[in-house]
Structure formats: C-alpha cells, structure tokens
Model the fold of this input.
Amino acid sequence: VQLVESGGGSVQPGESLNLSCSVSGVSFSSYDMMWYRKTPGAKRELGGTISGGDGRKKHYAEFVNGRYFISRDHAKNMVHLEMYRLRLDDTAIYYCAIPVYPDAWGPGTQVTVSS
Done:
C-alpha cells in the first residue's frame, strides 16, 4: 500500500487549500479513509473520515468546525481534503490513512498558515 499526499503550501489566515492523497497497491474504493495532521512534538490528530463505497458517511473532528470537506475519487484512486478559512493552528503536516492498513503512511504534505 502506498499513500502520497500533495497540495500543501504556505497561505495566510482565512485562505484555502485543497489536499490530495493518491492511493496505490490496494483497491481502496471499499475502505474508509482518514485525514490526520501532526505538529512537532504532538501525536497525529485525526481530522476527518470518509466511508468506503459511496463515501456518504463523513465525520470531522471538533476543531474542524465546518471548515474541512473530505471527498473521494474512485476513478483516480484519490481522496481529497478541502480546507477553508485556515487558521494559524492548522499549521501541520497532513497525512491520509487507511484504517485497515494502520502501518501505511505517506510522507505527508506540509500546510503552513502564517500572516
């Protein structure tokens, strides 16, 4: 299983980013997918999940507060994280994950929010 995140960057507070995660080595369409983030010295923090299949079930961490939206594209084997109204404390490395493959992690993509 390979996960490769992309789309991070440096933005100002209030701006938006769209992260992507490319999944290979597994037929991921039936699996739940998750987005985590990690800051230095802290454990990975779950940001949100999307169910496998039609992806209708989505859950977000409390800190998201309606600012993140997860989607999946089975044709491209990708999962996306749209992030709006970014805050300084959204600065982190963002990772996607497949719960049934708990040891599979990609390199992550850095999101930096600064004024």
Summary: The beta strands are 2-6, 9-11, 17-24, 33-38, 45-50, 58-60, 68-73, 78-83, 92-97, 109-113.
